[in-house]
Amino acid sequence: MIAASDTRQNRVKYSVIVPMYNEEEVITHTYSRLTEVMQQTEETYELIFVNDGSHDRTLEVINQLKQQDAHVRVIDFSRNFGHQIAITAGMDYAEGDAIIVIDADLQDPPEVILQMIEKWQAGYEVVYAKREKRKGETLFKKWTAKLFYRVLRQMTNVEIPLDTGDFRLIDRKVAQVLRGLKEKNRFVRGLISWIGFRQTSVSYVREERFAGETKYPLKKMISFALDGITSFSYKPLKIASYIGFLVSLGGFVYLLVVIFQRLFTDTTETGWASIIAIILIFNGIILMLLGIIGEYIGRIYDESKDRPLYIVRSVDEKNELEDKRLL
Ligand code: UDP
Ligand code: MG
User: Fold this and answer.
1) What residues are paired with 131 via a beta bridge?
2) What sections of the sequence does the record tag as coiled-coil (predicted)?
């Protein structure tokens, strides 16, 4: 069967998606490294830069590059919507037969793309890049990341590969399925694992950030981790019932002990300090569990509002560039 993509007139073979949030210092370098690599493929390609509401000169820099090079396309968000949504937008607009997602900061070496393409040509539909090592990141970041991937694996039924970020290549078919998944709190790498198809990995060493600093402060990291876990697992909700059951069981046994002491021994439990302590502990547990439930309800609320995932201020019309983009 001939895939629908084969009948498109202006075929782009590879789409590279680069999400950017305040990356003015790195973007020119990223552009040249990517261009160097993509030229080696000797195929048609487009570089889709998604400006995720940057406050610096990122957009100006990239627009300048666009003037000089017809491979460049720019999607400009009306505000900061977040990394995962920027990737999603890139995939929505990408026209290539294979779509590659890469960070703007050159932590993911563009050269690895060539290895991914080889695997894709060998018939794999998803090629993700597995971090063998992470250079130049704080111990805190490395440990929390490591812990996160392991907790996630324990919690979910979907096989989400360990130590892989969003640096990966996906086939057009996978992107098409992904477009149909409309959930709002997106954890893209989990969704891709969930979709299935033939998946494989290439290993690489994660480099230091080329310039600037991480755009994932602790707050964003926590909300990212919560999205990952709650989108793929009900286990936290179940933990609530387990803990509740154990606590009541403990309370009941303790009550029996107290009654026994009162009736059959001379010692009677006295003191209210212990009671307050116990009340505090259990109230704490109850609040925590309500919080977990709240996380899910919040997400149900998000889905039911059904707002658009992102708002684009401008995007390059595809025809404007078509003939130049073909080599
Ligand atoms: N990013 C984004 N929107 C955000 C935060 C980050 O588009 O709200 C982009 C950022 O520009 C980079 C990628 O997502 O290209 C990964 O971010 P970063 O390198 O800061 O994360 P880290 O590598 O430290 O986990
Ligand atoms: Mg980075």
Assistant:
1) 204
2) none
Neighbours of 312 (CB within 10 A): 16
CA dihedral 230, 140, 128, 45 (to 10 degrees): 110
Task: Please say if the pLDDT value at position 89 is more than 70.
Answer: yes
Q: Any residues with CB less than 8 A from the CB of 67 and at least 6 apart, and which? A: none
Locate the ligand 1 atom nearest the alpha carbon of residue 81 and give its number: 8
Radius of gyration of the chain (CA): 25
CA distance 314 to 327: 26
Upper half-sphere CA count for residue 212 (Cβ side, 13 Å): 19
C-alpha 170/C-alpha 128 separation (Å) is: 8
Is the pLDDT at 8 greater than 60, yes or no?
no
Between the CA of 285 and the centroid of ligand 1 the distance, in Å, is: 34
Tens digit of pLDDT for each residue in 182-203? 888 888 888 888 888 899 999 8
Query: What is the crossing angle of helices 235-264 and 273-305, to 10°?
Result: 160
pTM for the complete prediction? 0.78
What pLDDT does residue 10 have? 61
**Ligand 1 site, CB within 6 A:** 19-21, 23, 52, 80, 82-83, 86, 103-105, 107, 214-216
* Sign of the alpha-carbon dihedral angle for 219, 221, 225, 230: positive
Beta-bridged to residue 169, according to DSSP, are 100, 127
Closest-CA residue to 230 (of 307, 290, 293, 319): 293
